[in-house]
Queue: 4 jobs
Job 1
Amino acid sequence: ADSFNGVDALYRKGRSDGSSDTYSCAAYIKRFYKEVHGVTVNNLFGGRTPNSSKGTFKLVKTPEAGDIVACSSSGSSNHWAIVKQVNDDNTVTLIEQNWKWSQGGQTLCKINRSISISSGKFYRLYQ
């Protein structure tokens, strides 16, 4: 559906991707950081700070392209995405997986969805 730095976001038809290691939002983060930075990312759970096989993730207030963003979701879970672009209007454009819905028998997704900077938590890898 979308791509950033050569890493494709993958979607499958249907309502939910569950704990899929391929299609979940966290799966994109893991695949992106493995392919682009050569690191394994773990700890992608609600309220947690991601961790890495090499380097450290730190919470940052000013996001940059490539940072991980935790967006609030239902309950204690997060929806994970990557900042694709920082915009002049205090928003960021995301690349993500598993942000989809069904309508009229079709599975739809939003490409280049933007959120306000104040609505996410941003994590940057320091190696």
Note: The first strand starts at residue 2 and ends at 4.
Job 2
Amino acid sequence: MNLPNRITMVRIILLPFMVFFYLANFIAPWGKLVAFILFIIAASTDKLDGYYARKLNQTTVLGNFLDTNADKLLTNIGLLLVVCDGTIPAPWGVLAAIVYVGRDVVVCALKELAATKNHVFKVDNLGRIKAGFQMVGIPAFMFVAFLKQAITNETVILVFEIIAIVTFTIATALTIISMINYLVKNRHFFKEDEN
């Protein structure tokens, strides 16, 4: 396995540890802080693996598959954690989770459809920007969950909640726009082949 793929695997391997620490109430509030740090480390490997893949000319089909799915796992698992514990209150967290997972299913289906027609499905800049906001908004809520357990200063908590809400709202809007964008740009894949 080449270096970029090993870096991507680190992102995947960190996920169960992130979940464990986030849910480990017996070490509260530090478990949530550790989970937040693990999310940041995992998210940072996304840029690192891409950098080395290009620099070392080691871009592979396996690497693309691992990278894409590691990103989806990280964002969706992180989102589910902050939704399940109520850090993002109902019904907003549940609706956002439906949007995130739904968009990922649609994009995966488009990739499969493109592959059946011998086309390569390419990620565009809107998808990258969306991912960037997700990688900020989700851990911001993880940090808010830590603060709610660690401190009593409501002003500090409110400031970080506002930051989390703004970045996460932008991420969710971009997730919807990105899904629509992919559907429109790739609508030709839905046409039946002519005999």
Note: Residues 7 and 49 are 6 Å apart (CA to CA).
Job 3
Amino acid sequence: MDIRQLHRDLIALHGRPAKTYSDDGVRQLLTTILSQNVADVQTSRAAKELFAAYPDYRAMEQADHDELAEVISEVGLMNQKARRIQRSLAAIREETGGEYTLAFLDEMDTEAAQAWLTDIKGVGAKTANVVLNFHFEKPTFAVDTHIERLATRFGLIEDSTTAEQAHEVLNELLPDDIKYSLHVLLITHGKEYCSAQHPDCDNPVCDTYCSCSFC
């Protein structure tokens, strides 16, 4: 498949994604942790509550665990995510000698930065790649359920490919300069057309690339 042609066809259908790089890498990391296996609307509500509840990251790290879990109760797995948030903040503070910043990751190459993030228990490849791509503009490609579904239907990965393998395959396959844009476009297409159940296949992208049973 011509990946760049797929990219152009997605742009023709959905428009070119705007740059939405985050200003605060720590906030991006914590928000992405909240988003794990949760709908966007729930993530947005929980993030709003989380960042309004504490004056700074130190207070968030030192908060009572049960209190923090209740603050983010809008999302599933609130107890696990509360631990992941505090574990992440502790790792950042220890790495920087007391500051809450991920700026040090910018000095690392992509693989080293991915390794540092995924060394935090509960931070997987998807979360790490979102942070590195959306905040640092590093050439990483995060695979969520929409992308995994479309990558399979479009023949970019095999049906038997695991989520972990999908990250490896797609990060190797996709050109670095379009990883951010293609990530956003595929998610948009997965939500608007190529959904898991009852997809709307009447569009030029699905007509050209998709091999799902609905087409």
Note: The CA atoms of residues 19 and 181 lie 8 Å apart.
Job 4
Amino acid sequence: MARNQYFNYYGATNEQSLIDDLVVESIRQYAHDMIYLPRTGNNKDETLNEYEYNTFSDGLDCEFYLKSASSFEGQGMLLEKFGLQIKNQMILTMAIRSFTEFIKPTTAKERVQEGDLIYIPMLKALYEITYVDTSMPFYQMGKLQAWDITLELYESSNDVFSTGNAEIDDVYNAMDNIANDPFDQGDDFEAEANTVLDFSEVNPFSDGF
């Protein structure tokens, strides 16, 4: 064979551990402390393959390196038919060792999952994980050391928050309550409508019925 049999870079566990140490150290040196919220789906619709609502019961502290540091990415702010939509994106880098140490024992997940949330205290906002690149950089010395995580600004969607962190629970549960009942003052709207149009009048287009 052409490969030199005396060098095996992909099975050298000492070198792999060294790179692991360097990646974790470099991320922690420049990282931001954030809170990882694993998602639990409830009342799954087997036809549509989606959950009625999600529950976020844990807020796990971990460090992330802000990779897209110059500005937000994505489509920015768009004026759509339902109003102004904010499509800001960012990319974070997370060491696999940190995930194994701080998050896996609680969630029993093998990796960061799309649909989970990350709260960024610096921005006081929740971001949803939309994509996880699990192979970048690609197998240095035969092992993966980190993941690149793409986030989008979280949109309130009937979810329940009970993480124990009031900064998250109070704000986002209140937002969901508003979103769940947009016509909370329905009686007031109906009373106002009755002053504009008397629905007891005969409809001129009903032939007298």
Note: The beta strands are 32-37, 40-45, 50-56, 60-66, 73-80, 83-95, 117-120, 125-133, 146-153, 160-161.
